[in-house]
Amino acid sequence: MNNPPRKRKKATSTASSDDTPPDNLTQEENPATATITVSAVEVTELTQEEQSDRLHLERKVERAFFEAGKALAQLRDRRLYRSTHKTFEEYCRDRFGHSRRQSYLLMDAAVVFDNLVEICDQFDHKLPTAEGQVRPMTKLEPQEQQEVWLKAVEIAGGKVPTGRIVKDVVQRIMERTKVPNTYQIGEVCQILVKDNLELRGKGGCWAIVSAVNDFSCTVRMWDGEYTIGLQHLKSFNYLPAECQQMQVICDRIARIYSDSLEETVKSLLQLLGKLNRPNLTVVEEKLLTLLESEYGRIP
């Protein structure tokens, strides 16, 4: 007789009362209770001598453009480049990689910086630290430069102002003191150097206006063209026919003049470039004609 099948007991799993995760799982740490270890770094204070050295070196960095401009001016004025180069421009290009514009910007900036030192030291104001900060002021009168800089420092909250701030202040002054440019193309003017380094050696020379701008004129001289502020020009008030005569003389001198000429010849042409009358004397005409013949520049 067959026995009835036995009922199988259902297997049951015993739940563990231990909530601890297995060893191979890491429990996430609560950020609120995390411990951060910070290593202390000891910072030594500067000695009085080190502090003095730091200020001295910082000042040298800030004045680098000024020192460069002063040095370039001496190299040019004393013609210390003459043993290796014919012109100052060639020397700067070969020795420093400077364009003519870059060299003169630095020299102009040095003049402005010198002017600002007096007023800034007097009132303990910040001095420029870059050429671009003083570039907008180079065509202003010394007193205007000081006025612009003090105002720019004020706008910058007592700090060294950016070139943009300085330019904005200059623009306001230019608009305030704007004088109509009444010069005409072809007019003959005398050069007034004042404090413009780029015009040094051109004082008293005559030039012919070739372009009229808002605050300046582009003028032609025997050795090239220059853009000159109105404050550096004075009209000779020549008649139209006299202006035409000077144009002819300018053309004749320009055809001969070059930096490679003998010093005696250059000096003679430069003297003709300082005439304060609209014509040549008989002797001057003969000399100029002789030079034209000698150098094959007869028109």
Show the helix and strand layout.
Elements: H1 48-62, H2 64-77, H3 88-96, H4 100-123, H5 131-134, H6 142-155, H7 163-176, E1 188-191, E2 206-212, E3 216-221, E4 224-229, E5 233-235, H8 240-256, H9 263-272, H10 282-294
Antiparallel strand pairs: 1-2, 1-5, 2-3, 3-4
Helix pairs in contact: 2-4, 4-6, 6-7
Spatial order of the strands forming the largest sheet: 4-3-2-1-5
Element order, helices and strands?
Answer: HHHHHHHEEEEEHHH
Average pLDDT for all residues: 82
Instruction: Give the DSSP E fraction (strand runs of 2 or more residues).
Output: 5-15%
Q: How many strands appear in the DSSP assignment?
A: 5
pLDDT < 50 runs, ≥5 residues: 7-18
Task: Characterize the overall form.
Answer: elongated
Please tell me how large the radius of gyration is: 38 Å
- Count of helices? 10
Helix content: 40-55%
Distance between the termini: 149 Å
Let me know the largest β-sheet. Answer: 5 strands, antiparallel
Number of domains: 2
Structural class: alpha+beta
List its traits.
299 residues, 5-stranded antiparallel β-sheet, elongated
Describe this structure in words.
This protein has 299 residues and is of the alpha+beta class. It has two domains: 123 residues, no CATH class; 107 residues, no CATH class. It is 45% helix and 9% strand. α2 packs across α4 and α6 crosses α7. The longest helix is centred in the middle third of the chain and has 24 residues.
